[in-house]
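Researcher: Next entry in the queue.
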Amino acid sequence: MTDDSPSFVIAEVGHNHQGNLERCKAIFHAAAEAGADAVKIQKRDNRTLFTREMYDSHYDSENAYGPTYGTHREFLEFDAAQYRELKVYCDKLGIQFFSTAFDDASADFLAELDMPGYKIASGDLTNTPLLKKVAAFGKPIIVSTGGATMDDVQRAYDAIMPINPNLCIMQCTSGYPPPHEELNLRVIETFRRAFPDIIIGFSSHDSGIAMPLIGYMLGARVFEKHFTLNRAWKGTDQAFSLEPAGLKRVVRDLDRARIALGDGNKCPYPSETGPLNKMVKRVVAARELPAGTVLAADDLAFRIPVSAKITAAALRPFEAERLVGHRLNRSVSAEEIVTLADVGIG
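Model: Structure for this entry, 346 residues:
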């Protein structure tokens, strides 16, 4: 990607599907309609990811789908057949589908399904063995950096790049959602200076739509926003996720930003002609002037004429001095446009 590349927008579904395959498809469909380039969920091998104590611990959250943390997590996982069904569905939608690998077993699971790319969550930024394992798959790898120091990010970069340079590092703050004063979007600029050979992105955990646009202006080109169909649904991420209308605006505004930046050359545009014809003054006769009049400055005035009478020959005020001292070759009515041709120039 370059500075003028289109944005790549990922709708982070996570577990907003609530373990329901058809609901997940509906979310994917809405993301595609909103203009997202990709949808992403999360894969965990819960038995190997958590200690037995953690897996069996009592879980009484209002967002729980089971009495223990392990049963809660298992409820939200899709198996290989469901992943294949989702992949086929996304192919029909024309949207990319991939997942976050939270552990070695999940990484292998996703590799067997030939995912087009992989996400590494902020919590695994310092998990160098997992980074190297996923990098070796040879597919694009996106790494979030919530809670990290610059040393942590550099270590991850150094681990991945010799294996797989197709890397995107995402500025991220791992609050759910974080306060705006902790978003620190200027880290995007820091990352661009430190890692000029890779793509920089922004994983936006805030609940609004404005921050990705600022991220784009600072140089991010890959964007991740949590996405759902209903922010009131049960689930930790639902409340700060975007609904379809919000995601559509994010995609729209990022595309507009790319186009609106232009090439930096100042020039007039066709859309300006009509409005400026009603605002820009032209050189006209200050009074009725007979043929043969040698024009003086006070013979000329600056007025806004009828648009239909404005041609390329009409002079703007700064050009009036080109007429002064020259003789009119025709009679000119008061407030009539005076051109260079009227004094035999050009």
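Model: The chain has a mean pLDDT of 95.
Researcher: Noted, moving on.
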